[in-house]
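Entry 14: structure prediction run for Universal stress protein. Input pasted below.
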Amino acid sequence: MVNIVLPVDFGDKTEQLVEGAVKFAKQINGKIFLIHVAPSDIGFAIGDMGFQYFPEVEENEIREELVQLNKIQQRILAHDVDCEHILKQGIAKDIILEHAQDKNADFIVMGSHGRSGMYDVFVGSLTKGITKDSKIPVLVLPIHE
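Run finished. Output tokens:
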């Protein structure tokens, strides 16, 4: 079985990215390792009193993101593609590359924005960082309007 790491951000193009990854996984008998990386500072806010931490905000956000991950996982499984998911907090690029290595990934599947001819905008800064630093092949799927 071929291991595929699929980072998702729950943006408006996530569904297209998941569809492309499922199609790819079916073609190569792949297993998808779905990952979402939440920022470390979800519960922090700045106001009159300076920085404040609200753990309930972070807990609610993480809980909602886990619900979204579960839904995506169920959609993938419904296509007869094996899938696991995980949510981690930290710096997205570092966490994704570490997760790919931990899962012995054969591929990382990312999406491009398709909005402009400029590389950073076209591919996206996270996708650019992953493709630049990954020792694992990165499949970049065009995600268009």
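Notes: The domain at 2-142 is CATH 3.40.50.620 (Rossmann fold). Will compare against the previous run tomorrow.
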